[in-house]
Amino acid sequence: MSWDLDTFIERLYRKQLLSEGVVKELCEKTKEILVREGNVAQVSAPVTLVGDVHGQFYDVLEIFKIGGWAPFTNYVFLGDYVDRGYYSVETITLLTCLKLRWPDRITLVRGNHESRAVTQTYGFYTECMRKYGNANVWTYFTDLFDYLVLSVVIDDTIFCVHGGLSPSIHTIDQIRVIDRFREIPHEGAMADLVWSDPISTPSFASLGGGTDEKGDFAISPRGAGYLFGKEVTRKFLEVNGMGHICRAHQLCMEGYQILFDDMLSTVWSAPNYCYRAGNMASVLEIGPELRRYFNVFGPCPDQDRDAPGRDAPGSSGDLTAHYPETGDEEGAGGNQWRRKKAARKLVPGALRDPLEIDDSELTAVTGGGITKVVAEYFL
Amino acid sequence: MSSLWPPPLAARSAPVFHESGLSGDDAVRATNDDAAISRLAAVNQGYLSDPYAKHFVRRPQRRPPVINRGSYTRSKALDTLVQQFLKSGDGSPKTKQIVSLGAGSDTRWFLLKAQDLHPARYYEIDFPEITGRKAQIIKKNNEMTELLGEHLLTSGGTELHSDNYHLIPGDLRNFSTEILPRIASLGFDKSLPTLFLSECVLIYMSPRDSANLVQSAAESIESGVFVTYEQILPDDPFGVTMLQNLKMRGIELLGIRAHPSLQSQRDRYLIAGWDEAGAVDMNMFWERILDSDERTRVSALEIFDEVEEWRLLSGHYCVSWGIKTRKGADNGLKNVGLWELSS
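Output (structure tokens, whole complex):
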């Protein structure tokens, strides 16, 4: 493949993998951009925050349909791009391309799954082996993960991180001096930022094992990071002159959760997580004057059999045709996305009409068979 | 212009869900394979100890940590109840009986026998397709036939009989007309305390069939325990999704609406001739009943980053039990049950 980022992005939107060689160069070039970013990236509103997506590629497309396509919408992704879903490779490759293509419009924060150890347990490593036949792509991406920023501050007001707070971090300046270019350690500030969770139970006594002298941090059931409470959150915001913390990391059945009198919120962007949880998802849209709106959406319509006469995604040279009309809300919580049947005219010089590309071509590139999804239970 | 042109999309809008092409009894039988694979995955990761499990799985697979933990919890909860039962009364397993309904690839008898903790009689009942395959596998493995001792294969290889272990083909929907007479002819002694075990079995039967079974079981003994492990809570988003996902695999949880809660699980025994009953969900078992040293050991086996998902999943499974005590005698069965540890 000759190097053409736009072509790569266009292919990835159609869920076509890039070659190993291209992935290698993609990661190298993206590291060059990320290395210049500090541990705390500064971003301005308007911007949309995206929580965990965990390889749910079709739902990532849903996010773009709802939130707006890059680069027309600025995005901050809060980590956990891979593992658990069936399309981690496509997902992380797409997001990396978008970052490289529009570095000022896309910010990628590191999650606890952007780690060599975790991706060997939770699916990304296995998926790379299956789709590429070797572990090279896994190596390229896990090396890239070492470069992802640790946090974001939006207009000096909203602090964003994947997990949460740390007993070792009182000021944002302390985050700035961490050496982040490494595998996530088992403990310490960097581990805490990606692993911690807020806790909303009134008393820590029932949990046992407090660590901080004020008893505001408790041992986390995840085995890494800490649980932190309202007082810790308030103190952090005060000391750092911030107004709100936004993070991801925890499944929210309604797609988001607001805690601690709106000092902290969680955004979760993987609907029907693991094809099993039955949850809604959301993205947090931050508008002018830092107004916040949780845009909630449900899982992609499933069991989509290509039947004759069914509405197919249209393509059109008319830009406005791509901004979707959101469909009806289904009672069961799905967001039935319906596309306008757009005229199939192409922009001169544009790429091939995607409707010409049929499934057999898709499967050939993705290496044998449509991926079959099985939600696991105890039977 | 093309670089700004919003993109054409993947032709399909969603991943294709696995359709097994199975339905009815075939789909129910297939759940045994799934359970066997999950159990072996947990064994291989160090959660459980079971040298016989591998014989029942052709192609081992890994399972995610949340599934391993669930397989462990399922096994541990049931083992706890079985142990309590075997130790109750006079404290000896030799004065007890166990009837394992829809036993599938269960290795429980072999594990008990290997420690000389097996009961006087152990009956396993399942579809002939399942018992035939199990008998074949047992015959092929010395470590299992040694535990059996002298044994007999009958009915075209679908039955296996030894001194105190009986593998019997049958249809649980005909429990009182077919199964009970059969085990009676094989030494079933109604005066011995008896444990009936239903591990994801009753849930696949119609509520009427399962209610009849639970009632007939009570009537067939003087004292004993009935233990069930199965799904609950069909109506929340997780439950709705679970039923949809299983339906795509041809699996229907016919019984779930009859006993969708812990309370209704308890009631199913109380209205069917059992004297006392209890139920806990697997999340409760993990958090509050399981010994804390064990919980620590198990938590350390794998990176576990699925706390919310674990709570959701384990909250949708329960163990419930009914106890029948002999009139005028309390043979210690009242203590059988999963009780919270007072810390």
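Residues 202-214, 303-370 of chain A have pLDDT under 50 and may be disordered.
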